[in-house]
Design brief:
GTP pyrophosphokinase; binds ligand 0O2; alpha+beta; NT_sf; single chain
Length: 211
């Protein structure tokens, strides 16, 4: 049983705070070296106690098994401009030595029935406590700005409808999710074309007049 929720959540809060700094640091480093970053912005939160309790009921998680069975008490989100950036960020996370990835769920190319898309990474993270090292479970969701827009709005509507959307609304949300994904694809194509144009221009500009 959890005697004191505030105490129970201390390592999770520590992990979220540390990881926000680290991930924002990567963005800064990218901007300095490449002029652009696959990470647009980072958010993080500790799951509110009410949501933990609600999820314990929904997923039949025993309070004694919370640390092992609830993976997203500490949650980070990384927002990217392009779908390709998501995979660049995932690769980067795979190489880090301060996190141990336990599971990856690619809901970007395997969307959920609701239409939801994101790349989820479940990992173990060591937090240095007064009592010594404590390994906690945490989740990072990596998504585009368009995926984040859809998920944010859908989540707030979900709250209102308690997950029981009328069929028509469910269908419209699914097609809105597809529209968001088409927007992502279109933006990637525009970027590719611009890069190709710049590449051709550069080639012409570097040719000597006699060429
Ligand atoms: P919150 O409030 O964001 O913390 P389950 O929750 O059972 O569906 P599971 O297997 O625990 O899913 O993990 P999954 O599906 O990999 O990730 C669950 C989290 O992904 C959710 O956390 C949401 O953050 C997000 N998510 C998954 N599906 C949807 C969706 O259809 N719409 C939106 N907006 N977000 C989704 P929580 O704890 O449910 O909620």
């Amino acid at each position: 049983m959890v005697d004191n929720w505030e105490d129970f959540l201390i390592p999770y809060k520590q992990a979220v705070d540390e990881l926000k700094v680290k991930l924002r640091g990567i963005r800064g480093e990218y901007l300095k070296t490449d002029g652009r970053s696959p990470i647009e912005f980072v958010t993080g939160r500790v799951k509110p106690v009410d949501s933990i309790k609600e999820k314990m009921v929904r997923r039949h998680i025993d309070e004694d098994r919370l640390e092992e069975d609830m993976e997203d008490i500490a949650g980070l989100r990384i927002m990217c401009q392009f779908v390709e950036d998501i995979y660049q960020v995932v690769d980067l996370l795979r190489k880090r030595t301060d996190i141990t990835i336990l599971e990856e769920r690619d809901y970007v190319h395997n969307k959920k029935p609701s239409g939801y898309r994101s790349y989820h990474i479940i990992f173990e993270y060591p937090v240095q406590m007064l009592s010594g090292e404590k390994k906690i479970l945490a989740e990072i969701q990596v998504r585009t700005l368009a995926m984040n827009f859809w998920a944010t709005v859908e989540h707030s509507l979900n709250y209102k409808y308690q997950g029981e959307f009328p069929t028509e609304l469910k269908d419209r949300l699914q097609s809105a999710a597809e529209a968001a994904f088409r927007l992502d694809e279109e933006m990637s194509e525009i970027r590719d074309e611009l890069q190709e144009t710049n590449r051709v221009d550069d080639t012409h500009n570097t040719r000597k007049p006699s060429d």
